[in-house]
């Protein structure tokens, strides 16, 4: 591969040298039928085909140099016309024919070297079309691009429409380059030729450079005219803006004075109202605290009384249960004693009947008086004992009746006490409901107190905000009175960095202090009270306003 590259590079040198030497004899205007020019295109085509990757298809493998040459269209916008005309030529159907037409057109434009140089600089794009050892990928390609610069001295007039570029056979004719050294020209002629070619190349390069400088100067002149017109328009707009700002400043001064007066009046009225509301709130708070303390004491006393009554009620209930048990036992005893008394009465009646019978018998039978008298004595003794026993039972019965009556009275008293305790319990329930109502009323009063406290806090916030607004208005007033708006003619350099103003370094006013700064020293924006939107301020005013806002916020 290295030998092939050196052979192709030497053939390129010989073909360019022969082409330039022969073109001097013909006045340097060549056509497409000139043999050295045809051989130059053949050698250049062989150099471009060296190491070219083949595009595989179903039928065959095809190598075409049109692919890499199409990249020049993307890299150099100047070559768009050449590529479009090479594509649109009638009669050309293959990529090789389009590539040959593209090389002919580039030679007529004298830009073959420029296009090749741009293509050789992008090895990353050429790697898609060439192998690693190709001439276009190695140093020989850069040497070939330098050799092609010498073709700029040649004027070529080539007709492409009538030629059959698809079917031309690229064979190198070595007879043009293998001549007899006796017939070769003298070194003096070669020196003259090289000097003439160098002069022409220098003149063409100088013309190209001058044309480039002329276009650059024309573009700069157009841009300066545009900037001048823009500056004139901005100057007129700035003067109009200054006049309008002066009018707005006078209006703002008047509005500031009126706002100061109205805000002072509002502040005094708000302070008086807040003081009156604060005093009324304190008085209502004291009254509510006293009412709360009284209700709390009553609640504690009633709670203590209720606990004592509940204890007494429990004692009375226990006593009542014991009395009911005692009454039941007494009723059982009385029933038993009544049964015994009835049995004794029956026995007494039987004894009486027996006595009557015995008395009748004594009256009838006087003979048996003595015996009856003894019987009678015994019976009288029995009756006396029965009567004594009866009297004792009657006394016991009387005592039990009295005890029963006393127990009934005690039961009645307990019932009366229980009724009283129930009434007191009902009263306690009523007091409990009243206490619940008082609690609800207390909660409502606490809510009203909290609402009043919130209202006072909001009023305090409004007052603080109004004070801050007053301070802002005072600062704006001070700024309007103390800081004068510096005119554009009075400032020739930035106040902070001391750099002079020019077309590139514009003048900018600080909306806070009124001085003039450059763009870098006044690139900050802040919201000021006298402006609806954030405006430009200098670095010093920016830091001062930020410190002031942080101190007021804290």
From TrEMBL:
<dbReference type="InterPro" id="IPR037213">
    <property type="entry name" value="Run_dom_sf"/>
</dbReference>
<feature type="coiled-coil region">
    <location>
        <begin position="390"/>
        <end position="462"/>
    </location>
</feature>
<dbReference type="Pfam" id="PF01363">
    <property type="entry name" value="FYVE"/>
</dbReference>
<dbReference type="GO" id="GO:0008270">
    <property type="term" value="F:zinc ion binding"/>
</dbReference>
<keyword id="KW-0479">Metal-binding</keyword>
<feature type="domain" description="RUN">
    <location>
        <begin position="31"/>
        <end position="163"/>
    </location>
</feature>
<dbReference type="InterPro" id="IPR017455">
    <property type="entry name" value="Znf_FYVE-rel"/>
</dbReference>
<dbReference type="InterPro" id="IPR047331">
    <property type="entry name" value="FYVE_RUFY1"/>
</dbReference>
<dbReference type="InterPro" id="IPR004012">
    <property type="entry name" value="Run_dom"/>
</dbReference>
<dbReference type="GO" id="GO:0005737">
    <property type="term" value="C:cytoplasm"/>
</dbReference>
<keyword id="KW-0863">Zinc-finger</keyword>
<dbReference type="Pfam" id="PF02759">
    <property type="entry name" value="RUN"/>
</dbReference>
<protein>
    <submittedName>
        <fullName>RUN and FYVE domain containing 1</fullName>
    </submittedName>
</protein>
<keyword id="KW-0862">Zinc</keyword>
<dbReference type="GO" id="GO:0015031">
    <property type="term" value="P:protein transport"/>
</dbReference>
<dbReference type="InterPro" id="IPR047335">
    <property type="entry name" value="RUFY1-3"/>
</dbReference>
<feature type="coiled-coil region">
    <location>
        <begin position="207"/>
        <end position="326"/>
    </location>
</feature>
<dbReference type="InterPro" id="IPR000306">
    <property type="entry name" value="Znf_FYVE"/>
</dbReference>
<dbReference type="GO" id="GO:0030100">
    <property type="term" value="P:regulation of endocytosis"/>
</dbReference>
<dbReference type="InterPro" id="IPR013083">
    <property type="entry name" value="Znf_RING/FYVE/PHD"/>
</dbReference>
<feature type="domain" description="FYVE-type">
    <location>
        <begin position="488"/>
        <end position="546"/>
    </location>
</feature>
<keyword id="KW-0175">Coiled coil</keyword>
<dbReference type="InterPro" id="IPR011011">
    <property type="entry name" value="Znf_FYVE_PHD"/>
</dbReference>
């Amino acid at each position: 591969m290295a030998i092939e590259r050196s052979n192709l590079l030497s053939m390129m040198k010989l073909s360019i040298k022969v082409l330039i030497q022969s073109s001097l004899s013909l006045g340097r205007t060549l056509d497409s039928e000139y043999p050295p020019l045809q051989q130059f295109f053949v050698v250049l085509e062989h150099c471009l085909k060296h190491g070219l990757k083949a595009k595989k298809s179903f039928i065959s493998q095809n190598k075409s140099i049109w692919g890499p040459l199409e990249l020049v269209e993307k890299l150099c916008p100047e070559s768009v016309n050449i590529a479009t005309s090479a594509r649109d030529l009638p009669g050309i159907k293959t990529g090789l024919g389009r590539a040959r037409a593209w090389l002919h057109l580039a030679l007529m434009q004298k830009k073959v070297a420029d296009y090749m140089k741009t293509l050789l600089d992008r090895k990353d794009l050429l790697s898609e079309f060439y192998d690693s050892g190709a001439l276009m990928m190695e140093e020989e390609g850069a040497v070939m691009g330098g050799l092609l610069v010498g073709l700029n001295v040649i004027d070529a007039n080539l007709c492409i429409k009538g030629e059959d570029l698809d079917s031309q056979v690229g064979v190198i004719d070595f007879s043009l380059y293998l001549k007899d050294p006796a017939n070769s020209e003298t070194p003096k002629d070669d020196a003259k030729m090289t000097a003439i070619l160098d002069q022409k190349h220098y003149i063409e390069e100088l013309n190209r450079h001058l044309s480039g400088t002329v276009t650059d100067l024309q573009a700069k002149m157009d841009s300066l005219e545009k900037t001048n017109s823009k500056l004139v328009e901005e100057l007129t707009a700035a003067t109009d803006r200054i006049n309008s700002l002066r009018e707005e400043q006078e209006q703002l001064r008047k509005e500031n004075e009126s706002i100061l007066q109205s805000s002072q009046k509002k502040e005094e009225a708000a302070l008086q109202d807040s003081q009156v509301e604060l005093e009324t709130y304190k008085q209502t708070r004291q009254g509510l605290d006293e009412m709360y303390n009284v209700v709390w004491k009553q609640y504690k006393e009633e709670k203590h009384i209720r606990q004592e009554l509940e204890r007494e009620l429990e004692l009375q209930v226990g006593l009542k249960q014991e009395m009911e048990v005692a009454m039941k036992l007494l009723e059982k005893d009385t029933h038993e004693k009544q049964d015994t008394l009835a049995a004794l009465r029956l026995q007494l009646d039987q004894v009486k009947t027996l006595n009557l019978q015995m008395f009748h018998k004594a009256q009838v039978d006087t003979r048996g008086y003595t015996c009856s008298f003894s019987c009678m004595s015994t019976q009288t003794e029995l009756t006396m004992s029965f009567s004594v026993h009866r009297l004792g039972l009657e006394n016991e019965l009387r005592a039990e009746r009295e005890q029963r009556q006393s127990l009934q009275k005690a039961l009645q008293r307990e019932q009366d006490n229980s009724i009283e305790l129930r009434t007191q319990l009902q009263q306690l329930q009523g007091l409990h409901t009243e206490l619940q109502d008082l609690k609800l009323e207390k909660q409502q009063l606490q809510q009203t107190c909290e609402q009043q406290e919130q209202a006072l806090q909001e009023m305090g916030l409004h007052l603080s905000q109004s004070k801050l607004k007053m301070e802002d208005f005072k600062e704006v007033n001070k700024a309007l009175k103390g800081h004068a708006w510096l005119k554009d003619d009075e400032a020739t350099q930035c106040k902070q960095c001391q750099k002079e103003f020019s077309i590139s370094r514009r003048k900018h006013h600080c909306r806070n202090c009124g001085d003039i700064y450059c763009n870098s020293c006044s690139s900050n924006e802040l919201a000021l009270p006298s402006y609806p939107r954030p405006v430009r301020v200098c670095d010093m005013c920016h830091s001062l306003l930020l410190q002031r806002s942080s101190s007021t916020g804290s």
